[in-house]
Amino acid sequence: MKVSLECAHCLLERAINQVRLATDDSELQMRVITEMTKFLGENFNSESVPSNIGTDRDLIVQRMTGKDPYEALKHESNVMALNILPELIQLVDEAKDPDSMFRTATLIAAAANAIEFDVSGQEFSLDELRQILDNVESDLAVDQVDEFRKLCENVNEVIFLHDNAGEVVLDMILMREIKRLGPKVIAVVKGGPILNDATMIDADEVNLLDYADEVIDTGAPAIGVNLERNSKEFLDIFHSAELIVAKGMGNFESLTEFEPEAPTVHIMRTKCIPVAKHVGVQKNKNVVMIRHPPK
User: Fold this and answer.
1) Structural domains in the chain plus CATH codes
2) Is 80 exceeded by the pLDDT of residue 74?
3) CB contact burial 162-199 (16+ within 10 A = b; e otherwise)
4) pLDDT per residue over 251-273, tens digit each?
5) How does the average pLDDT of the chain come out, rounded?
6) Rounded CA separation 292/240 (Å)
7) CB within 8 Å of 54: residues ≥ 6 apart
8) Which residues contact 17 (CB under 8 A, 6 or more apart)?
9) Under 8 Å between Cβ of 198 and 169
């Protein structure tokens, strides 16, 4: 997926937000944004990929400020998500049959991509969580959950590409349901701090290995799947995958740059117009969409 006009505003706005999180030094803030506008002027064009140019943006902020802007927010997100995990597991276990349990777990994973975990002080009751799931269902613009379940029944291994901290906790419920269908689940986090994406630090903090058979990282601080930056170890596993679950827009932006080698299940909310247009739905809709390898 290539950038569109709206991406220019988003890339710069996020850079400004990151700089404010990273430092209170107004002179340093201005130096970073000056560097950022220069970078975008030289690299933002019709052939740019949003996840790739976003990666470079984040690394500029980190290099110049010496900080991961999202470090504290990621921890807060994990704590908040862990607090609601038992109640969400309860919602899944209340489902009347295995198909319904899998569907509920998939909707929770979609909801996880929509909830802003890093909003300080946010709390959820069980009734509110039920309402969130009802809204996810009603906003499900692409619904291939049944086909997703059937794919899980016919593979030996699933590669699960995680997105944000906090969100990774709720993904664990879906991973549990996938494993119940038979396949091994390999959870994948980022190889270093990038955006508010989950890393090995987050995986350890939320005990991701309790729900996955194996946890690996991409070998690089890069948004989505980056064939030029990710480690050979990760890419070998990725290229040999039977089935891939890809959470969030960053994975979608990067994975749509090449044909899938295995069925790829995208679970996300279309939070921006360019991604929504690429999918073919309205903005702020939920999507469980499968991309298949070319025949």
Assistant:
1) 5-65 (1.10.8.380), 71-291 (3.40.50.10880)
2) yes
3) bbbbbbbbbbbbbbbbbbebebebbbbbbbbbbbbbbb
4) 999 999 999 999 999 999 898 89
5) 93
6) 15
7) 11, 14, 195, 223, 250
8) 69
9) no
